[in-house]
Amino acid sequence: MRRNGRNTGNRRSHSNSLLQSIRHINKFKLLLIILIIFLIFLISFICVRSHFKSHSTDAFSAELAENSSDNAENTLSNNGSENSENNSNVENNQNTENDENQDSSDEEEVKGPTTFTLAALGDVMCHNTQYFDAYNSSTGEYDFSYVFDDIITETKIPNITVANLETTFAGEDVGYSNYPTFNSPDSLATALRDIGVDVVSTAGNHSLDKGFSGLSRTIDVLNDNLIYPHGTSQTAEAQNKILYQYVKGVKIAFLSYTYGTNGIAIPSDKTYCVNLIDKDFIKSQIDIAKNQGADLIVTSMHWGTEYSKTPSDEQKNLADFLFQNGVDIILGNHPHVLQPMEKRTVTLEDGTQKDGFVVYSLGNFTADQTDVDTKTSIVLNLTITKAEDGKISIDDVSYTPIYMYKNSNASTHKFRLLNIRSAIENYESGIDTSIGKSTYNTLKTQLEKVNSMYQNVNY
Question: Which of 243, 256, 381, 431 has the fewest CB atoms within 10 Å, i.e. the most exposed one?
C-alpha cells in the first residue's frame, strides 16, 4: 500500500523520540520491562489458543450442517458475485488449468430424495445498438444491468441457471463488433453473473468470431466472473474434462456441441477448441460423464434452422440419439425463435425407463433483432428430483414468457427485458403504462402464441 509522505515522517519522528527515552533507562529496568511484556504476550497467546480449540470443532460442525442444508437458504452477496458458489458447487471446470481446484468439492451425497430447480435461458446476443445503449460517456464504461431489472427474480431464484452465449469477449483492444463477427464488452458477462447465471454454453457458430485468441479470452472472462463455460476449450486436455456442478447433492454433467462455426476454419493444430456435433465424440463424452458418476446429464445443442419455429428431422433424430445414450435434458439454441418442448418417457436398451426433456430452441434471451418472434422468449424452469434410489425425475415444467422491449423514444437505456405477464397486468391496472398501447397489444399477441405452442406439453 502506498503511504502518505507526511504520515510516514510523523511516524519516523515519533520513533526517534522513543529511542532517545529508552536510552536513558537503566539496562536492568529495560530487561525487566521486556520480560514483563513477554510474559503478558505468552499468557494472552495461551488463552486465545485454548479458546479457539474449544470452539473450533463445534463451529466446523455447524458450518458443515449449514452447507448441506437447502441451497435456497444461502445468502447472496451484495453484488451477486457469489451466486454460483451458493447455488452450485463446481467439481470439475473443463477450462481451468489449475488441477488443484479440479476435484476440490466432492460433496457428500445427500441421503433421501432431494429436489431442486434448474432455469434455462436462450441466446445471449449483443448487437452494436445494445452496447451503444449500455455505454456511459461520463465514465467510459458499459453497464448492461438495467436491461434485466424486470426479470431478475426469475433467473436468481432457481438453484442453478444456464444460458447460451452467442458472442465473444475478445477484449476492447480487438474492437467491439456487431454481426457477423461479434465481440462484446466484458461487463455483459458481469451482468449475467449478477442476475444469477451459473453455467454458459460456448459451443456455437460464433465461437471463433475473433479467432482462437478470442475464444480463449472468452473462457477466461467467464471464469473470472464465476460463470462456468462448456463446449469450447483452451487445450486438448481441457476438452476431455467434463464440467460438473453439484446442486443440493446432485452431480450434474454439462455438455455442449455446435453444428459449425459459420465457415470460420477451426485451426488445424487446435481442433479441440470447439465441440462439434459428431455422434462418436458426443457418445464418448456421455460415457465419461456416466462413468464418473453423473446423476444428471444436461446437453446444450447448437442446431436447427435459423428463424424456423419447428424442429428439423435432424434435430429430432439427434434428440433421440442423445436420450438413448443417457442424456436427461436437452437445451436447444441457435434458431433465435422459440421451438416446441417435450417431456417424454425414455426406454433404454436394457428396458429401463427414465424421464427425458427437450426444448428444441429457447429463442433469444437478449438481442436486437427486428422480427417480433426474435424478441420473444421464455425463462424455462424445471423442477427435478433425485429419488433415494438415485433415479431422476422431472416433476414440473414451467416457463415465464419474456420480451425484449426497445423504447426508441428514450435517449439512453432503450432496452428492457419484460416479464410479459407482469407487464400486461401492470398496464391493465394502470401501475405502469410506460410501454404504450402498441407494445401492450404486441405482448398480448405474443403471450397467446407462446401459450399455444406449449399447451400440449406433458408437464
Answer: 431
Q: Could you report the per-residue pLDDT of 26-54, keeping only the tens digit for each?
A: 555 666 777 777 777 666 655 544 444 33
Other beta carbons within 10 Å of 192:
25
- Is domain 81-453 classified as CATH 2.30.30.240? no
Domain ranges of the chain: 5-57, 81-453
Please report, for residues 135, 185, 197, 412, the alpha-carbon distance to residue 138 in angstroms, rounded to integers and kept in the order given: 9, 17, 29, 13
Q: pLDDT by residue (tens digit) across 169-189?
A: 999 999 999 999 999 999 999
pTM of the model: 0.79
Q: Please state the three-class secondary structure of the chain as a single string.
A: CCCCHHHHHHHHHHHHHHHHHHHCCCHHHHHHHHHHHHHHHHHHHHHHHHHHHHHHHHHHHHHHHHHCCCHHHCCCCCCCCCHHHHHCEEEECCCCCCHHHCCCCCCCCCCCCEEEEEEEEEEECCCHHHHHHHEECCCCEECCHHHHCCCHHHHHCCCEEEEEECCCCCCHHHCCECCCCCECCCHHHHHHHHCCCCEEECCCCCCCCCHHHHHHHHHHHHHHCCCEEECECCCHHHHCCCEEEEECCEEEEEEEEECCCCCCCCCCCCHHHECECCHHHHHHHHHHHHHCCCCEEEEEEECCCCCCCCCCHHHHHHHHHHHHCCCCEEEEECCCCECCEEEEEEECCCCCEEEEEEECCECEEECCCCCHHHCEEEEEEEEEEECCCCCEEEEEEEEEEEEEEECCCCCCCCEEEEEHHHHHHHHHHCCCCCCHHHHHHHHHHHHHHHHHHCCCCCC
Q: Around 373, how many Cα atoms within 13 Å sit in the side-chain half-sphere?
A: 15
Mean pLDDT of 1-17: 38
Looking at the chain, how many residues does it have?
459
For residues 214 and 183, the answer to whether their CB atoms sit within 8 Å is: yes
